[in-house]
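Good morning,

Attaching, inline, the backbone tokens for the sequence recovery test we're adding to the shared suite. The designed sequence is right after.
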């Protein structure tokens, strides 16, 4: 069983390597076709520039010629940058890179160029992008029903407080009235006592006069 397992494992690895290589070759072919198309476009622009320069030579004082030629040159720059990007991607697939001095294709890990001998400087590492966590503040807007309910609750509380104050005021007024009534009653009792004493004194005086 081990023998067949090993055969199966090797076959699987071979298939994977073949598939990877096939996929890499297919991608490389696609990139090279794209570069060929871009180079053809650049050649077309070269012809357009040459034609425009000649027309400007024939037509003297052509004001638009210089601007049109400049625009076509910018177009060539854009196409060239795109070709350069595709070329780097193609070399990356094959673990290759360009010499920093003569731009010859060399091994990716090479420290020196095998063609010109120039030392290959390590590319500068791109600064790490630190992701900041942004806390979003969400403003909570209460529903109209909730607002109306709160208004009703506040109104009820205000009425309850008002009723309590009215009851307290009425109680104070009642106590004050009762106090006044009590004072009046005591005053009346004193007046009656004084009147009774006066009547008694007068009666005694009359009796003494009669006896005399």
């Amino acid at each position: 069983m081990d023998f067949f397992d090993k055969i199966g494992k090797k076959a699987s690895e071979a298939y994977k390597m073949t598939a990877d290589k096939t996929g890499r070759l297919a991608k490389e072919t696609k990139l090279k076709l794209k570069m060929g198309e871009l180079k053809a476009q650049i050649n077309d622009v070269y012809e357009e520039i040459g034609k425009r320069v000649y027309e400007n030579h024939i037509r003297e004082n052509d004001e638009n010629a210089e601007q049109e030629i400049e625009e076509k040159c910018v177009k060539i720059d854009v196409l060239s940058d795109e070709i350069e990007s595709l070329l780097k991607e193609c070399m990356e697939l094959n673990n290759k890179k360009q010499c920093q001095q003569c731009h010859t294709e060399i091994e990716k890990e090479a420290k020196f160029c095998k063609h010109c001998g120039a030392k290959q400087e390590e590319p500068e590492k791109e600064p790490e992008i630190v992701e900041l966590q942004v806390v979003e503040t969400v403003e909570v807007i209460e529903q109209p029903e909730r607002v109306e309910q709160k208004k009703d609750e506040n109104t009820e509380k205000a009425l309850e407080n008002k009723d309590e104050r009215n009851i307290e005021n009425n109680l104070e007024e009642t106590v004050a009235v009762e106090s006044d009534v009590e004072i009046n009653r005591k005053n009346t009792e004193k007046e009656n006592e004084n009147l009774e004493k006066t009547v008694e004194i007068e009666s005694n005086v009359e009796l003494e006069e009669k006896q005399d």
